[in-house]
Amino acid sequence: MSNEFFLRELAKGDVDVINRWRSDYELVDKLGANFRYIDKTVDEAWMAAYFNNRANNVRLAICQKGVESMVGVVYLISIDWVNRNCELAIMIGDQNCRGKGVGEFATRQALKHAFFDLNLHRVSLTVLESNVSAISLYSKLGFKREGLLKDVVYKSSKYHNMLTMALLKSEFSELNS
């Protein structure tokens, strides 16, 4: 799997693909974010804001070798350089790449970058309690459940719980030594 995919920083040309994914109701329904119709100009402004202030965010495209467009994104966001922590978010936008280990590859690579290149101490995330496959992946990579946010997200006409999970550099290093 690792030979087939690689990570790179988002590029301005990725806006079209990201906007298409953010307009995919079924995809967004699996994520913690709420579905909203988002005009391309809004995503262009979001991308411009990222490029103007990259100090506390790392936004990476997940790419398949030999294919021009990306298949997903993985982010290290809200980096706190004093306390050495951040949040992780991931989205596999290409339906053909879901459930095939791409998320594991990208998450593992993003964690290596966070811990060994950026020298962060802790990475946290939130995930829908109903997203069993994502929770399984995060647990496999060493994330531990820290809490439950009850009825915190309103999606598909009902409220949903979110789990909070986190991983320390020492725990990741121990699992990947």
What does this 3D model show about the protein?
By secondary structure, this protein is α+β, with helices and mostly antiparallel strands. The protein is built from six helices and seven strands. It has helices at 15-22, 25-29, 40-52, 102-117, 132-140, 169-175, and strands spanning 5-9, 58-64, 70-80, 85-92, 122-128, 144-155, 158-168. A seven-stranded mixed β-sheet has the order 1-2-3-4-5-7-6. Strand 2 (58-64) and strand 3 (70-80) form a beta hairpin. It is globular and about 40 Å long. The model has no long low-confidence stretch (mean pLDDT 93).
List the helices and strands and how they pair.
Layout: E1 5-9, H1 15-22, H2 25-29, H3 40-52, E2 58-64, E3 70-80, E4 85-92, H4 102-117, E5 122-128, H5 132-140, E6 144-155, E7 158-168, H6 169-175
Parallel strand pairs: 4-5
Antiparallel strand pairs: 1-2, 2-3, 3-4, 5-7, 6-7
Helix pairs in contact: 1-3
Class from secondary-structure proportions: alpha+beta
Give helix and strand order, one letter per element, not per position: EHHHEEEHEHEEH
Oligomer class: single chain
> What is the makeup of the main sheet?
7 strands, mixed
Q: What percentage of the residues does DSSP assign to strands (E)? A: 25-35%
Principal-axis shape: globular
Radius of gyration: 16 Å
- Per DSSP, the total helix count is 6
Give me the side-by-side strand order of the main sheet.
1-2-3-4-5-7-6
Number of strands: 7
Helical content band = 25-40%
Integer average pLDDT: 93
| Span between termini | 19 Å
Low-confidence stretches: none
